[in-house]
Each structure stands twice: as C-alpha cells, then as structure tokens.
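Hi Y.,

Following your request, here is the sequence exactly as I used it, all 1175 residues.
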Amino acid sequence: MYIKSMVLDGFKSYGTRVEINDFDREFNAITGLNGTGKSNILDGICFVLGIQGKQVRANTLQELIYKNGQAGVTKASVTLTFDNTDKKNCPIGYENDNTIVICRQISIPNNTRYMINGSSVNPKRVSDLFSSVSLNVNNPHFLIMQGRVTKVLNMKPHEILSMLEEAAGTGMYESKKIAAQKLISKKEAKLGNLKDLITEEICPKIEKLKGEKEKYLELQKVTREAEHWGKIYTAFSYWSLLQKVSKGEEDRNKKITELEKGQNAMTEKQNEIETVEQLISEIQLAMNEESSGKLVETESKLAEERKNEALVSAKYQSEKDSISAEEKKLNQLIKSVQDDKNALKKKEKEMSDMDKKYEKLKIEDEKDKEAYVSAQHKFQAISAGLFAAEDGSVGTLQDQIISMKSQISTAETECKQCEMKLSHIKSKIPEKKKLMQQTESDSGKDKQLLENKQKELKRLNEDLKRLSYEEGAYETLDTERQELLRSKQNAQSEVYNLLNRDRAMEFQYTDPTPNFDRSRVKGRVARLVTVKDPKYALAIETALGGLVFNVVVDDENTSQLLIQNGNLARRTTFIPLTKIRSNVMDGRVIKTAQNLVGKENVFPALSLISYNPEYQRAMEFMLGNIFVCASGDVAKRVTFCPEIRKKSITLDGEVYDHSGVLSGGSKISTAGILGRVQQMLHAERTFDSTAATLQALEKKMATLERNYNQYSELKHARDLASHELSRLEERLQKTTFFSHKQEYEDLVNKQAELEQKIKECKKIVKENAEKVKEKESNMNNIEGLRERELENAKKEMKRLKDKADKSGDLWKQKEQEYETHKLEINDLKKAIEKGDENVEHFKEELNQVKSEVGKLEEEARNVKERVRILEADIKVQKDVLNEKNSEIQRHKKTKDKCQIDIKKLTNLVTDIEAELKNVEKESETIQEKITQLEEDHTWISSEKSHFGNPDGVYDFSKMNPHEVTRKYQKLKEHRDKLERTVDKKAQLSLRNEENQFKEAMTKKSIVESDRGKLLKVIEELDEKKKIALREAWVKVNTDFGSIFSLLLPGSQAKLSPPAGKDILDGLEVNVAFGGLWKESLGELSGGQRSLVALSLVLAMLLFKPAPLYILDEVDAALDLSHTQNIGQMLKRHFKTSQFIIVSLKEGMFSNANVIFRTKFVDGNSNVTRTVNRKN
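Below is the corresponding structure, written out as tokens. Let me know if you'd prefer a different format.
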C-alpha cells in the first residue's frame, strides 16, 4: 500500500485547495525555498495518519487551520489516496478495495472528523488500519525528522542497543518484564503490608480487646458499689441540711433582738445633737448682731485694697518686664533682620547652583528620551531582520563584524599613541619632582601653618557636629517666651478687672486646719453653672436668685470648719452635698407641660445648664422644680395647671408661683452675673494654660542655654579659622613651590590617565576580537540569534522607558523646587523690608512704656499703706469674736462625740442587718438544696423518716461522714475513669479481629504463590529477548555495512559490543576506510559521521520495513558530495517501500523519480510536479 495522491484544503499555508497527484511508488522528493510549505506536506500526511503533538509542529489543532482561522477559512482537511492493489500487504478488512481514500478534517472550535472511503469513522479505526500494515502511529519509526540523525551521533552503547531492541520488537518483551517486576513489587509490598497488619495491628488488637473485656467486668462491679455508697452519701447530705435549717432559725431571732436595741440607742443620740445645735445657733445669732456687720464691711474694704495692691504691683512689674522684653525683642528683631539678609545671600547663591543642576537634569531627561527612541528604532530594526550592534546601530552581522574589526584597528592605533605619550611623561616626572623638592624648603613654614589650620578647622567642625544644638533654636524659643509673657499679662489683667467688678464672686478663706484639702470647697454656685444658650441666662439667674453667692462644699463638717476657723470676710451660706436632698420633678409632669404648650415653649431649668456631675445634687436642690417658659402666657398656663403646679420663670425674668405670687418688672441685683463669671473662668483658664506653657518653655530654654553658649563660641572660632585658612591658601598658591607642585601633580595625573586609556584600548581590542568570533559563530545559527536579539531589545526598550519616565519625574520635581526657591527669595526680601519698619516701631513703643513705669511705682506705695491700716482694724474686731467662738467650740465637742457614737451605732446596726440578711439568704439556699435533692432523688420522700434512726441502715452516728464521702468519691472517680476508657463493645470487636486474622493469613499464602509464578515468567521472557536480539543484530549489522559502503564507497561499518562485553551490555559503531578500522568516530569528518548515523537509522528501518517512509531534511548535516548515492541505496534496499523525502540539496532530490517543488503565491502555498528524466 502506497500513497497515490493527496489533497490539502485550508491546512497550514495551503489556504486554497491544492491537489498533489501521481506520487512515485518508490522515491519522491519535495523541495522549495524556506517558508513555501514543503514540510507542511509531510505534516499533512502525519495529520491524516493520526500522529499528534509536535510531530505536526502545532500546539493546538486550531494552529493547523490557515492563519489560525483568522482569514475567513474556518476548517482544514487533508485527504490521502492509497494504492491497495498489493493484496498480500493490504490492511485487514480492505482486501476488496483497490483504492483506499482516508480524509481527516478539523474545524473551529476543535471539531475533528475522520473518513475512510467517504464514511465517517472514529480515530481508533484509522489507527488500527495503519497498524495492520506496520505503520504504528503511536511509535512512528517510519517518520525520520531533522534532528534524529544528529541525535544518533551522540548515542551511548546502551542507547544504540535500545534502538536495536525497538527494531527487533523486543521492547514488547521488556515492557512485559517491567510489568511483571512491578507486579512482583506490588505483591511483595502487599505481602509486607499483610505481615505488618498481622504483627502490628491484628495481634495487638486481639490482646488489647482481651484486656478491655476484663476492664468491662470490673466496671460493672464498681458501678454497683458506687450506687450503694452514693445513696448513703445523699441521705447524709439531706439530713445535714435539715439540721442547718433548725439552727438558722434560732440565729435569725437573736439578730432581730440586737437590731432593735441598736436603733433605739441611735434615736437617743440624735435628740441630744439637735439640742446642742440649738444652743450653737443662739450664740452665733448674738455674735452676728454685735459685730459681724462691721467686720464684713471692713474685710470687704481690705479685700478690695489688696486686689488693688496686687493689680498695681502686677501692672508695675509687668511694665518693667515689658521694658526688658521689648528691649530684648528689639535686639532679636534686629538680629532676625540681619539673619534674613544673610539667608538671602545664601539663597541667591543656592539659586545660582540650582540653575546649573536644573539645566543638567533637563539635559539628562532629553538624553534618556533619545535613548528610549533609539531603543524603539533598534527593536523595529531587529523585528525587520537586522541585528543591533553594541553602539546601538543596526545592520547585518557582516556589517557589524566589519565595524568591530575597524574598532580594533582604531583602538590599537590609539594604544600606540598613548604609549608614546606615556613614555615622554615618565621622562619628565623625575625632573619636575626634583624642582619641587628643591623649592619645598622655602615654603615649609607656610605649609606647616596650613596643615595646623586645616586640623584646627576640622576639629572645630567635629565639635560643632557633636554638640546637640540646631542653629537658631534658642532664639526661636526666646521669641515664643516674649509672646507668652504678653499673653499671660493680658489674661492676668482681664482676671483682675472682672474681679473688681464682681468682688462678691471671690470666696476668700484661710485654711481652718493644717494641711487642709482645698478640693473639699467647690466654690460659689455662679462659678459651677454654665448656661448652654445665653438667651436663657436671665431666666436661670432669676431662678437661682441669691443662691448664686452660696458656696458648695463636700459635707457639713467642711462648712462648720470654715465658719469656725476660716476667717470668713462676710456671712456665707453653704450647701453641703451630703446633707441636701435633691428635689426633681417627675418625668410625667415635664411631659404634661410640653403637651400643654409645646416642647419649644417650656423647658425644665436643669436641661438649660451644664455642670460637673459631682454637683448634681446641688443643682437638683436649687433648680429641680422650676420651668423656664417662652412667655408670660405660657408660664401662667404651666404654673396654674392642676396636674403641674410648678414655679415658672419667663425669658424676661418674670416669676409665676402656684401659690399666687407674681414678681417681675424690675432688674434683679444679680442680672448678667453668670455671663461675667463665665468670662472670668475663661480668663483664668487662659492665664493658667499660658503660665504652664511659659514655665515649660523657660525650663526648656534653661536646658538649651548651655549648648547655645558653647555653639556660639565654637561657631565664632570656626569662622575665624576658616578665614585664616583661606588667606594661607592664597599666599601658598603664589609661591614657586606651589607652581612646581601643581605641574608635578598634573604630570602624575596625566600618567594615570594614559595608563588607564591604554588598558581601555587593550580591553576594546580583546572584547571586539571575542565579539567578532562570536558574530562569525552566530552566522551559522542566525534564526536563534534573531530571537535572542529581539527579546534583549524588548527588555532594553522597557528599561530605557522606565528610566526616561523616572528622569522626567525628577526633572519636574526639581522644576517645582526651583520655583519654590524663587518664592522663598521674594519672601525674604519682603521680610527684610517689613523687619526694618518693625525696628523703628518698637523703638517708639519702648520710649512710651518707660514713661508709664514711674507713675505706677508711686501708686503702689499709696495702696500698700491703706492695706496696713485696714488689717490692724480687723484684728481688733476678731479678738471680740474669738471669745464667743470658744463657747461654741465646747458645745461642738459634745456634738462631735454624739456624732461619733451615732456613727459607731450605725456601723453596728449595718453589720447586724448584713448578718441577718446572710442568715436568711443561707436558709433560703439550704432550702433550695433540700428541694433539689428531693427532685433529683425521688426515693428520699419514702425513706427520709429512717434518716438518723439508731441501728438502722441510715444510722449516721456509727458512720464517719468524711470516710463515707471519701469512699463514695473514690468509687465514683474510678467508675468515671473506667467509663472513659472501657470499650463496651469489646467482646464483639474481639470476634471480628479473630476473623480478620484468619483472612489475612489466607491472603498471605495467595500472594506468596503469585510471586513465584511471576518470577518464572520473567526468566522465560529474558531468554526469548536474548534470541530475538541476536537475530536482529546479525541482520541489522549486515544491512548497516551494505548501506554505508554504498553511500561511501571504499568504507565499511559494523555494530559490535564494547571490548570485553556482550551485545546485551550495549553496542558501538565501528567504521573502516580501506580496511583500516578507526578507533572512534571522532576521527571522521562531520559529513562522514552523519552518513554513519543515517546508515544506522536506515538499517534499523530495513529490519522490519514499512510500506511508507517520511524523511524531513535528513541530509541537512551531510556534505553535498555524500548525498548523490542515497537514491541508489534506497532503490536497492527498500524495494517494497515508498519514500517521501523533503530536501534542499540537489544531490539528494536529483536522484528521486518524482520531484515536487513548492512556492508561495499570493499568501498561499502551491506545488508543481516534475519527473526526473535521469531516472
């Protein structure tokens, strides 16, 4: 069976239908230029045969369709017509068909169809057809691709033996042997698993289950004992709880008696306290009538004069400090202006430097963009088939080689020139060095001074770096301090002004006891209240009335201490937080009022103020039962509503009382006081905050001052040393020594440059020589080189793009910095102009402040004298009051003793009440336990009458409760432990494990029997393999020598085992010329070695010839002179086989009977047929 014709339609490069007719029965050749579709004809044959993967040079079936289905062609088909007239070698089942037409068709997306003689069949049917005529598509030895001949050249002896085994068909024997060995391994592994199962699992499990059975029996016994002792334990617990209930009732009655006795004693002490308080009130009333009015008036005057004294003194001191501060600030301002001028010079110099850097960045950005464009051109050139040189230019490899050789010549010339210059310089250096040494002594002193000054300057710079101080830090802090001093003085003046206006708001007292805690005195009510919205301020002030001047304290003891020993300047009413009762209207009343007049017209007074939660009781006491209303009509309706009846106040201060009292129409004495108090509190907070900040700042300045002084000294010394160093350097540059030294150093530097240049030239020569060699080598593999160059160019283009983007970003960033610098210079110029104006302004203000200080000093002396006179008058009045205070103190001691007794009785009663609650709670707990036991153990109700009976089962007098408990707990723990570990199904599991043991032993016997049979089969297969291999070796060896001697007359070839070994250990190729055998194939030329490999491949194929052979450019590695005899060889040795060969060498296809030539026309491949007249 051989191919008569084939049709390609839409397959690879054959976009249109192409018929190839009249294939020769023996020798057909296909030739044509690269890319015209000659190998696609072989791919089409392999496609029909069912060969998959890379043999048809496609990753997916869609790639086999013309232009991947993107050119309007959506399917591809290949049809082969076979001559089947030779009935001896025809496929099974096709003896009656003289022609067999096989077609394979694919279409998008991945639909495949096979047809034989027009009927659709499955791929297996086609594979079986070809296999029946020795065309095994799963192992296509009839297909010889380009690399197969080259691969044979590098084969080792055992690989050549593998080829022989494949040709002889002993691979089937070997596969069966391997399968048998794998089966033996599996059987041995299974046998080992069975042994492990028996020894490691089944036997231990049987032993374990026997032990579990014994534990189960023990569990049953322990459970019975635990139930017996558990019942006794429960009965004893129940009986014990009953005893505790009886005792608890007795304790309760006893505590109730003690409680009644303590409460009676407390009542008696309270009555005694009330009597003493009455006496104290009468004495205090007499004291107030006699002299309190006058004392309050005098103390009020003293307080006012003291405030005036403090205010005048503070103002005088403030003005003095202000003069000092203003003078310092003036100096600082002058220094600041000078610093700005210095900074302006520095910024202008930096601006000049920045111009150069900005221009440099701009140039670099343009260079990077040009490099990126160049890389794009390079990539496009390589894509077009050219190659990139090292300098970025593109061209052919030959052009690059010529360019590199030119560079080598240039570098060699430049190297020689540099060597000549170097020789001249080396001769001049000793002469210059001698002149320099001769004049060195003249400048020795200046040189030493220069070195010393350089060391000094270096040391000063290092000292400045080590000093942890930033330039200008101290001056900045000092400026902040002056600002804070002014803010503090302003806040202090505001506080004094507000205090003078409302002196009654200041609560002054002396500590009544040593170390008195002043946090116990909260302050006047007006200072504790904040009105949320100013429009409600008048209403809240009216509601509070005189209460705004009351003082809130923590308890009544504090108020008593202040009254007795606080030296109060006026009569004061106190509100003790622990003594007053809060009085807040019910939420339902609030809701009724809001429903009556609307939420927007009536508000509880408490909701309109904010305060510290600590003062809530005081606020509820004062405002808890008052409404604030939007108008008089609203207030009247709310006040006199029967369901409300609460006091109401309008926004204008009118008061409505449900008792019938109406007030309003005149301005109250406290009008606006809450607003002024809030101003005062805000001013005090501002003063405290500013003082704290100022203190912290001054502390920081004190810490920094030492470093500031050191820095100033070091900076001055450094500037002086730098100036002296510059003068020394200028003087040295004018000396003869310095001139000779400069010439000498220039020559040495030039020598180093020339030596470096010589190295670079030699490097260029070496690198270009290597590159020339590399380029000449690449000429032989131009396709692979093009792919690598294309990939490298792509990467370089991406790198240069990233670099260009980065340069552009950096340039834009520096452009922004440049503009910012310009703005800073303009700002400095404006600041200098403004600073000069401020200096003049400060000088004028300073002169005005100095004139005011003298007046304030005289006023301070006058106020001080008035304070002294008032203090003497107050002392006389207080001596009179102290006598009355002594009598009050005696009564207070009696009251304090009663209060201590009440406190002790209160604690006692509280303890008794707590103990009584504990007794009652314990009784309830015990009763709950009794009930729980009766619910958990129903047998208690029937047997509890026997609990504790003598000589009975529950005779607890003969039992040790602790022993019963211990024994029950021990049995219970033992039972629980056994229940966690005992397997109650152990008996059933034991039977299952014993059955499993018997089954495993049976399987073990079967596996051992199978293993013996398999070993016997392997021995038989090995013997058959040896016989078949020897027969194949003799036949292939004969054909190998015959084919090689025909292809290369006068030569011989054979396959022989390595020295001292058998053919089963491997085979080597031996070649002889003129009867002289070569020691290795390395002595042969490349073409001769390729002929050896091709002869060996053909000899292997000849062992079991197939009806069809396909050779794809197998002569690629052969010399032209060696291809001429291939046609004769094929006709002589392969008389029954059809050959289809793709070749580019005329020596090969000129021997073919029929030549098919491919060409590319209008994007499609075409084929023309030529009959070789020579044949």
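The longest helix spans residues 171-383.

Thanks again,
Q.
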